[in-house]
Amino acid sequence: MSRSLPVNCLSHQLLTLTFAWGTHAIWIVAALAVLATIVLGWSDIARFHLGRIWALSDTCFTESMRRRVLLVTPLAILGVITVVQLQRPSDEQDAIRQTIKFCLFTSGLIVTVTALILACTNLPKEIETRVIYTIVTKPTTRLEIVLGKVIGFARVSGMIILIMGIFTYGYLELRNWRLVRGITERLSEEPTESVQHAALSHWAGRGFLDTKSLEFPREVGIFSRETGPDGIQWMAGGKSEFFAVPFEPTESQRSLLLEAVEKGAEVDLLVTLQLERHKPTEDDLKMTRELGIKNPAAASHILGPVLPDTRPSTQPQDEVPAQIKVRVLDDQRRPLIGFEEFDNNSSGITVVPPTDGRPGAVIRLKETLLPRLAGARSFIVEVSGITPSVEFGAGEMPVVFFVPAAEPDKAMIKPQFQGGKPVTPLFLSHTGHRGMILTGDPKETGTVAVYRFRNADVGHGSGGKVPFQVNLSFERNGEFQDTTTSFSVVALQVRNRNTATSSGTIRITPEMDRTTYFDVPQGDVAGGNFDVTLRDLTAQQQLGLELGSLAVVTADRSFAFNLFKSLLVLWMLCVLVVVISVFCSTFLSWPIAVVLTLVILLGRWGVDELGDALNPGVGRGVAGEFKVTDPGASRVVSTSVEALARTLKSVAVALPDVSRFPVSEDIERGISIPPARLAGAAEVLLLYGLILISASYLILKRKEVAP
Amino acid sequence: MAAAHHDAVAIEGLTKVYTDFWGRDKVRALDNLNLNIERGEVFGLLGPNGSGKSTTIKLMLGLIFPTQGKATILGHPAGSTAINERIGFLPEESYLYRFLNGEETLYFYGRLFKIPRKELKRRVPALLDTVGLDAKSRKRKLREYSKGMARRIGLAQALINNPDLILLDEPTTGLDPIGTREMKDLIVSLKSQGKTVLLCSHLLADVQDVCDRITILYAGRRQTLGQVRDLLQVKDITQVQARGMTPEQIAELKQFLTRLGVADTTITHPTTTLEDLFIRVVRENAANLDNPTNPAGGNGANGDGRIGRIGMPATAAGKQAPPKVG
After folding, report:
1. Under a CB-based contact definition with an 8 Å cutoff, are residues A435 and A420 in contact?
2. Predicted TM-score (pTM) of this structure
């Protein structure tokens, strides 16, 4: 359910560069809803009285208590204890992590389901049993009725969360005490020189419920080598690496694109790259053959005014051509133009060797693709290196569009600018099962991940040292033959951008999905502007990296307070459920209201889960799946499915994003929940609360409550 | 018809048509009703089932909205939240929160009127006494109440705000004859306090006992309207009553009337009402049970507390005066 900054670094980094239209639009809708409520319900707002709202909420609360709603909590507690007894954790830390997850999951489940049922059934039942007669015939406004219900059930949710919170805290402290006692016993039998001794000492001293404040890097990049003084950034071909360039064309530029469509004019995409070739290994040659990379003479799509037709002839015929793949994504990272639409399903686009100092590729865009670009307020061009044994270097503005225009300065659509400069391309790698892939290489000059910290609060450290934590996942392929050690070796280095100082290389041996700590001198991170480079020195291994895989530990925090924050997020989620439920119950019978509430609550998450399945082309896929051979019928099916997919995506954008209520994500990992998480959840609650409470009031104001 | 300022209720051309899901007319429940209820009178709204009585009340309270026409309550448009401060409403059945007890119910409704807690502490017990709920029953949840007790607590919530206009929809439904009599006494008492009462019922005897004016609705239309005594008066028959006449005196009176040329003369002993007979019998038995010298003595008060109240002195319209509320 969660998609947050440290976990999903790719989305975060790309999305923060693009215009968050959805958020702005929902704020506008919220403002309009409040305005409509003020205009249409001014007389009721003038009569607004908190005492009446509290009295109405009291009845909801009392009714729930007297119906013994709280009986769900002992049942839930019993369930948690049973499940925890059956769990098979890999170690003590995992045991605590699983217990936290069970407790919070169960608390979340019972409290949201209870809130959903109570809030959905209350109003329809009061109308059905006519109890509402004696409420609306009192000087109670419909706005007060709506707010009274929302607050009443928010109080019920709060009570359940309070009970479950007290249980969770007590139970975790008990588990922690028992696990620490077991560790202490093991420690007394463990030789001090053993590998596990240090870890056991750590847990015996600190317990498993420690909570830390972490400072995360602003971004992470993956490069084939470190960036030199010339500023050229490099990616390796054939290693899942790519770079992304964000665009935010102006209205006039988008109009030019549309004019180009009408006039049949040619629009080109120019990708400017430097190349560095290495002697291909046997594996490289094998991969080149498998990929079907051909001599550029066969590449018919190299066109355009910048690179003359004679240039391909400079390509040595015996040299493996350097090829790239290009695609365009929208601001939600969904493909606008796929790879195959750029290169006509060939192996890739060949980058022509330099003859005039501007090596690259010119790609003529098909007319049919231009409306998609023109229709997007912002988009991202993604360029991947295909050919192994070739490194691709990108400088400032490696990607631009050329559009025919009367004024030359308007003819070029440049990447997005920030602070008067074009945004630096983001160098990343494709995401595997465990994060962005970083290929292992025993040489200390190979592929490198660079974590960039900017204006970071690194805390005060202790003893002149600042602690860092690393949590990595790794996969080893079947050819892994290193029998000397079962440990992975990772090399880290910290470079301070303010002082130009650098720590020496720090080698650590991380364990899979375990947190490993290392210290660096305070001076190396002073000022908060520094880079941390990370290399995997283990051959035939791939690391899975996230933005949150590496962080500075700035302070130790209270677990109890962190649990409180986690439960506060859960309570805010429950209030959102109540608001949606009350809204649905103002115009629907309770069973339908329950269903609609679930759809509103989970719709966006569901569409996000469908992901690429709803991208353009899904219609053709469905038509093919059902073997619709008739061209007319195929077109109808394809168009209908495409329209449905578009509608689903459009509707989903307007629904609340429940991933902004991360209840257990941070606390499970021992991370102090940052205020931004609470603010994010509060923002969603406030926005949708304003909209739905206003809508509920306006519906109820016009509703005949006498059946 | 302009609403006179002294009218408690002024209804002009009020029409309500219920429609189906598609907006097509289904039932014309009320058809162009015109009606005025003066302040301080007890007005009866009569009619058979489906005649539009409840629809009229729902429209007056803003529970439903009119298709045409308008209703003005105490000088304000019907359904306005502000005017609800001065209205008390007893629905056809006591639609109350069944998980609250009698006291909590009144405190809850009192809070909706922003009545201070101190004032509620004074008013709630007084009202519970008025409607005849004893200390034990007022602590019981409403779901445990009998129908009569539910009517009583329903009445109490309608009076919690000391309203100027009280709408009573079938107030005696579910009440035994004693409760019915007490309800009628209360209505008379409210009138004596200057309050306006709209009584909606099809129990004609109840209406006849307490109402100043009535209207009869049929098929959503007003069929008749006027003072009860005017409407019920049989103008060509004269009734003379006298106490303690002997058979000889009666025979002489008959001969005298014949000599005067009066035709169709009937001289009989008048009968009391069954309600009066019932109350007299219950009172006498209650007095015997309360007498400590009686072997079967003791107070036979039940959960309604009504038997304990039977011995109270009778009043003009009913038999006892309820305490003034508010």
Report:
1. no
2. 0.75
The residue assigned the tokens 């400079």 is: A314
- Pull the structure tokens for residue B188: 């008379």
Residue A380: both structure tokens together: 């991202």
Q: How many CB atoms lie within 10 A of CB A669?
A: 18
Contact A564, A136 (CB under 8 A): no
CA neighbours within 13 Å on the CB side: how many for B267? 19
Strands B165-169 and B87-90: parallel
Query: What is the arithmetic mean of pLDDT over A177-195?
Result: 82
Q: Residue range A582-599: average pLDDT?
A: 96
Element (H, E) at A374: helix A370-375
| Sequence-ordered alpha helix ranges (H) in A390-517 | none
Of residues A231 and A461, more confidence is placed in A231
Q: Among residues B220, B292, B188, which one has the least CA distance to residue B59?
A: B220
Q: What single string gives the DSSP state of each residue in B122-158? A: HHHHHHHHHHT--TTGGGSBGGG--HHHHHHHHHHHH
Q: In the numeric block, which tokens belong to residue A285?
A: 């040659």
Within an 8 Å CB–CB cutoff, is residue B56 touching chain A? no
Phi, psi for residue A558 in degrees, rounded to 5: -80, 135
Asked if residues A695 and B47 have their Cβ atoms less than 8 Å apart, the reply is no
What distance in Å separates residue B320's CA from the closest CA in chain A? Answer: 28
ipTM at complex level: 0.80
| Residues with Cβ within 8 Å of residue A601, at least 6 apart in sequence | A576, A577, A580, A655, A656, A658
Q: What percentage of residues in chain A have a pLDDT greater than 90?
A: 38
Instruction: For residue B274, give every residue at least 6 positions away whose Cβ sits within 8 Å of its Cβ, in sequence order, or none.
Output: none
Longest dimension (CA), chain A: 91
Distance separating alpha carbons of residues A604 and A367, to the nearest angstrom: 33
Q: What are phi and psi of A52, to 5 degrees?
A: -65, -40
Mean pLDDT (whole number) for A130-143: 93
CB of B109 within 8 Å of a chain A CB? The answer is: yes
Which amino acid type is present at position A522?
Q
What's CA A540's distance to the chain center, in Å?
A: 28
Q: What is the spatial distance between Cα B166 and Cα B150, in angstroms, rounded to a whole number?
A: 18
Q: Which residues contact B243 (CB under 8 A, 6 or more apart)?
A: none
Q: In this complex, which of A55, A130, A704 lies closest to B111 when CB atoms are compared?
A: A55
Ranges under pLDDT 70 in chain B? 1-6, 274, 289-326
Bridge partner residues of B221 (DSSP): B218
What single-letter DSSP state applies at residue A671?
Answer: B
Q: Nearest by CB to A131, from B64, B85, B97: name it.
A: B97
Give the pLDDT score at A304: 36
| Separation CA A83–CA A102 (nearest Å) | 8
One-letter amino acid at A380 equals: I
Q: What is the pLDDT, as a whole number, of residue B303?
A: 40
Confidence bin at A201 (pLDDT 50/70/90): confident
* Alpha carbon distance A545, A548 (integer Å): 8
CA distance B50 to chain A (A): 15
- The pLDDT tens digits for A231-288 are 899 999 888 889 999 998 888 888 888 888 788 777 888 888 888 888 888 888 888 8
Closest CA to A272 of A293, A295, A243: A243
Give me the numbers of helices (H) and strands (E) for chain B, helices first please: 9, 10
Contacts of residue A200, Cβ cutoff 8 Å, sequence gap at least 6:
A183, A186, A187, A190
- Which site among B97, B107, B109, B142 would you substitute to test the A interface, given the most A Cβ atoms closer than 10 Å to its Cβ? B97
Structure tokens at A29: 């809708």
A382's enclosing H/E stretch is: strand A379-385
Tell me the two tokens of residue A596: 């609609």
Q: Per the CB < 8 Å rule, is A66 touching B97?
A: no
Q: Cβ distance A211 to A562 under 8 Å?
A: yes
Beta strands of B47-84 (E only): which ranges?
68-73, 76-77
Is A110:A76 a contact under the CB 8 Å cutoff? yes
